[in-house]
From TrEMBL:
Protein known as: Calcineurin-like phosphoesterase domain-containing protein
Gene Ontology biological-process entries: nucleotide catabolic process
Keyword Lipoprotein annotated: no
Domain of life: Bacteria
Residues forming coiled coils: none
InterPro entries listed in its UniProt record: 5'-Nucleotdase_CS (IPR006146), 5_nucleotidase/apyrase (IPR006179), Calcineurin-like_PHP (IPR004843), Metallo-depent_PP-like (IPR029052)
Key words of the record: Hydrolase, Nucleotide-binding
Family (UniProt): Belongs to the 5'-nucleotidase family.
Organism from which the protein derives: Cytobacillus horneckiae
Pfam families named among the record's database cross-references: Metallophos
MF GO annotations: hydrolase activity, acting on ester bonds; metal ion binding; nucleotide binding
Domain Calcineurin-like phosphoesterase span(s) in chain numbering: 32-276
Amino acid sequence: MFIWFMIFFYIVMPSSWHLTVFAGDDASVINIKIMQTTDMHGNILDYKYQSAEKTVDFGLVRTASLIKKIREEYENTLLFDTGDILEGNALGEYAYRSRFFNLGRVHPVIKAMNYLNYDGATVGNHEFNYGLNFLMQSLQGAAFPFVNANIYIDDHNTNPIDDINLLPPYIIQDKEWTDESGVKQKLKIGIIGFVTPIVAEWDKEYFRDKLIVKNISETARHYVPLMKEEGADIIVALAHVGMDADKGLQEKEGNSVSDLSQVSGIDAILYGHTHSVYPSRPGLNLVNTSRPAIVQAGYWGNHLGIIDLKLVNKNGKWKVEKSTSSIQTIYRTIKNKKIPVTGRDTELEKLMMKDHLNVKKFSEIK
């Protein structure tokens, strides 16, 4: 009966009539896949410089294959890193001691990240181990933005209004992505960065009378509304801090991922610093019933963090309807033996080979 009624309705209704379609009935839906690396510590290749041997345990050269595969399968993707990239192995030390940027060259780690077309990154505490000048010169070679909202230049006054950030506190990127109906949609993605305040204690010589570090959550509460005012449809936080605050930190409240997740307006938190994975194992998908989604991708490129966001546009505004956190590993363990689950990115391997050979020579001289 209903079918005949609808046929009659469409045949006899005047051409001047129209049907009202509610936003909830045809709302645009976009699925986004956000990828994360963290705590690489110079480990671009799957190589142990101390023992001079190949490994399947780590290496961005293997993570890169996972990244490329996801980009082939999904159209709407983002790729970020959450810090501790410049220091930690022989490659990092070689780059520091050779002062390559004086010759107009790009830091080897930054070069690898440029190759992979990162959308953004933040700095970790170990970025400051070689001093502020080395850090800033290294970042100049990046073809992608570095953001940090809670490190400020010490102006030696008590007025917070005129404080100046060391790096851009956030950026808003314009993206054109395809929705489930195949229609191109324009979105604004807000990206903000943070680092654990304990960095000021661990690298006192570079921070004292030069830089100050503010509370992470308080800083987020200041900037997130500004990002919304500038039109950010979703906000991604890149946080180099643990789920819990560092044990040696005097002011623990507000300086953890747990606290940051309580800040209204953040849709996803990618974090690093503690060299662990969250969710706790590959294959475990955490469906988030309340925002934000959270992920941590281990260290040295041994895992790739992934956050899936389902965005729905209702009444002209994009909202996260569903989010899922997961990780992918570059190896699996069978009978106490690590078996690679992904191959090397041979193009990245070739790109890094000259630096790799120089590092081996440098290590032998040492």
